[in-house]
Design brief:
395 residues; 0% strand
Length: 395
């Protein structure tokens, strides 16, 4: 008879540092490099409000699949062959979800929904089976199974109806999943789970989310470089590539310069790391990743048509991506540390205020202005951190 505890990560003693991120977790993340690329292409393939909304909807699905697996590997040890087998199955299902994204609202609806439900339900059932009946996490995963089955029924039913009516069932399905953590995975007769029941190792969880941000930023560089190489490296295209890189570098600096480290320390030292992991990482990081993907799509427009003004949704992603990123970073840091940055909020508003100017200047000039603003903010934050000035305390 096997010992269920051998599938769980041993918890380090207080002050001993966070758990190591394993090669199995990094290998799993490779599928999501593809998924993020698919999402940025979806934005460009349909530059309309409806297309942007569909891409945003699918982004939430992709993020939810990844973040729930990050929760699982915070508890379960990938060194266990059974846990690795579960990760392999989840990775395959994730690949099918990513591959079916372009046709999710058309011919690939059943594959998309089926793979996603298999991923969510299958992972939760497998995790439950790896736990002893009396283990404190058993209750958490039993709740996850029932909530994922409830949403799964709607996902599969939506895939079976006409594509034009699919969202009528898929929006409630996704809403169930988004509400579940705040509802404490409530069940009749069992009440709500508390975030203190989750026993999260905060440092490891923070590092996992930091790596996903790196995936998204790296994808933006790959897309920019590939677009420039395919279109021919003229002087203007090369200049556009430089601007796109500098914008990506500024976002990297604004995330990893101060907020990421402060928040990692906050979740690692928190009395309730489960709450911080839920609010600051599970929810707030969705805005950060969405902003990066929008920026990546905007950079592809920049490099492909640097001398042309952008209009409508094109302008919205060029300006909205960085603004959404800044709002996400501020929300993330506030939920993790109780601090927010007035500077980031003001800069986000300043970028949005460029909307009336956008149709009248080349997108290269517009992107250069945005990049200069972001670089100035990054420099200001670097100087503020060096002089140990507090940003703003949340009252």
């Amino acid at each position: 008879m096997h010992d269920p505890s051998r599938h769980l990560r041993p918890r380090a003693a207080a002050g001993a540092g966070s758990q190591r991120i394993t090669e199995a977790e990094l290998f799993f993340d490779l599928v999501y490099v593809f998924a993020v690329t698919q999402l940025s292409h979806l934005v460009l393939d349909d530059l309309s409000l409806a297309g942007l909304a569909r891409a945003g909807f699918l982004l939430v699905v992709v993020w939810w699949a990844w973040i729930y697996t990050a929760w699982m590997t915070n508890w379960f040890d990938p060194a266990s062959p059974r846990v690795r087998a579960v990760l392999g199955g989840v990775m395959l299902a994730s690949l099918l979800v990513a591959a079916s994204l372009p046709g999710a609202f058309d011919q690939n609806g059943l594959l998309f929904a089926g793979a996603y439900v298999a991923l969510q339900v299958g992972r939760n059932v497998a995790a439950t089976s790896l736990l002893a009946q009396d283990h404190r996490l058993r209750d958490v995963f039993e709740r996850l199974v029932l909530w994922s089955v409830a949403s799964g029924v709607l996902w599969l039913a939506g895939a079976a109806v006409d594509p034009d009516q699919r969202l009528l069932l898929w929006i409630p399905a996704l809403a169930i999943e988004l509400v579940a953590p705040f509802a404490g995975y409530w069940l009749p007769g069992r009440g709500r789970a508390r975030t203190t029941d989750y026993d999260i190792e905060g440092g490891h969880f923070a590092e996992r989310c930091h790596l996903f941000v790196l995936i998204a930023l790296g994808e933006s560089i790959v897309v920019a470089g590939a677009t420039a190489a395919a279109g021919g490296l003229s002087f203007t295209a090369t200049l556009a590539l430089v601007v796109a890189f500098l914008e990506t570098l500024a976002l990297w600096w604004l995330y990893f310069g101060t907020p990421a480290e402060r928040s990692r320390k906050a979740v690692a030292e928190s009395d309730d790391p489960g709450r911080v992991a839920r609010d600051a990482y599970t929810y707030a990081h969705l805005l950060i990743v969405g902003g990066i993907i929008a920026m990546a799509a905007g950079n592809e427009l920049l490099i492909a048509h640097p001398s042309d003004p952008q209009h409508g949704v094109g302008t919205a992603i060029v300006l909205g991506g960085p603004a959404l990123f800044l709002l996400g970073v501020d929300l993330f840091q506030w939920r993790a540390t109780g601090r927010f940055s007035v500077g980031r909020l003001l800069v986000a508003g300043l970028i949005v205020a460029l909307l009336p100017l956008a149709p009248h200047i080349a997108v290269l000039a517009l992107a250069a202005i945005v990049t200069a603003i972001l670089a100035a903010l990054a420099r200001w934050e670097l100087r503020a951190a060096a002089s140990s000035r507090p940003i703003v305390a949340n009252p």
